[in-house]
Amino acid sequence: EFTPDARRLIRESETYAVLNRQAILGFRSSYALRLYEMGALRLHRRQSTWRADMTAVRAAFGIAPELYKDFAQLRRKVLDKAKAEIDHLAHFTVDWREIRRGRAIVELEFNFHPKTAPEQLLTVAEIERHASGREARRDGVVEEIVVEAPTLPAPPRPVPPRAAPRPTKAARSDGSDVFPSGSLQYGSGPFGEIARTHGGGWDRDLIAGAYREQMGSRLDGLTGQKLVKSWTGFCQAFAARRGRP
């Protein structure tokens, strides 16, 4: 539910262009939404700052009197979390300055800064991505999707001494590298089957290319069941994010 300030922003046509509905819906913290409202109202003013004493700050964020009486706790539970979401999803960033009287913090000064064009493009791309894993992407870590691994085919029987050698792990019979390298287009192995089953009907090589791009050098040490789990989870996430082709 929008606060009165947010409803006023939406009513004002000039400001509505600034108020990104997708960003608002992406916020998981009500404190981030309150901070977004403050920034959207002040971003393009001559002085894009807001300075207030702690009583006004608590009121602006809607913090109950009994919560976060210690400023270190308020910073960690409210300010840091709200800033992380704003910097990740909004078209501006925010920081603040703590003003002290003696050892006590008595006022805060918030400063709002518009993002550059490249930064805004990255923000738009993030908003369009699935919300699952957003916190991990914001924090710069990889969120592992744990799925049940499919049953792999039984290992082949030993090749008789005079039979032609079977393809090694480095290459398939068609001469292309095995997954995660090479093509899955004509492959009937387990990784091609995983892409066919969980990839939502998308081209298997398209999914494989996106997987290699996202994983990068992390693929070097990924083998066996860990590779199967990682690939299966990526195929499912790819299909969930893009829908049917």
Write up this protein:
It is built from 11 helices and 3 strands; from the N terminus they run ααααβααββααααα. By secondary structure, it is mainly α. It has 2 domains: 4-129, Orthogonal Bundle (Arc Repressor Mutant, subunit A); 144-156 and 170-242, no CATH class. It has a 3-stranded antiparallel β-sheet. The protein is elongated, with a radius of gyration of 26 Å. Residues 13-19 and 165-176 have low confidence and may be disordered.
Structure classification:
mainly alpha
How many H/I helices?
A: 11
Helix content: 40-55%
Give the N-terminus to C-terminus distance in angstroms. Answer: 35 Å
The number of distinct β-strands equals 3
Strand content: 5-15%
Number of domains: 2
CATH class of the largest domain: Mainly Alpha
Radius of gyration: 26 Å
CATH architecture descriptor name of the largest domain: Orthogonal Bundle
- Name the average pLDDT: 80
> Which descriptor suits the 3D outline?
elongated
- SSE order: HHHHEHHEEHHHHH
- Poorly predicted tracts of residues: 13-19, 165-176
